[in-house]
Amino acid sequence: MSTKFFINNEDQILRDTGLRVTKQRLAIVRVLFEAEDHPDAEQVLARARERDASVSQATTYRTLAALAEKGVLQTHTFDGGVTRYEVSNRPHHDHLIDIETGDVMEFVSEEIERLQRRVAAEHGYEIVAHRLELYCRKAS
User: Fold this and answer.
1) Which of 22, 51, 125, 134 is 20 to 30 A from 64, comparing alpha carbons?
2) Quick one: which residues bind Fe cation (predicted)?
C-alpha cells in the first residue's frame, strides 16, 4: 500500500514527500509523530504553534495534504466529522468512537481479525486492507 515512515529523520520525511524542509514543517511533523490521539488540522496547528509560533494555517493544511497524499499519514473522517490524522507506520488497529464525547480509542482484537478473514474466505475473497470503526456510547 504505502511506504512506512519513521520519525528518526524528520528532514528526510519532508524531502521524501517533496516538501521543503522548514522549521514550521518540522514542528508539524513532530506534532504528528508524537500524537497519541487522532488530531484534526486545527489541533495540529495549535500544537505546532506551541513549538513555533510562526506556523501558519496554510502551511499546516498544505503539509497535512502532502503527507497524506504520500502515505505518511492516514486520514479518518469518523461519522462524517472533521478529518483526523494518524501516522501510517503504526501497527494495525481498529477504532472505537464514543458518539457522545468524540473520543477515539484504538484497539486490537485477534478474534475480530480471524472472523473478518473467515467471512471474506467464505465469499471467495482475501482481505487486502480494512478499517473497522465501532460507534459507541458508555453503557449505563
Assistant:
1) 134
2) 92, 94, 113, 130
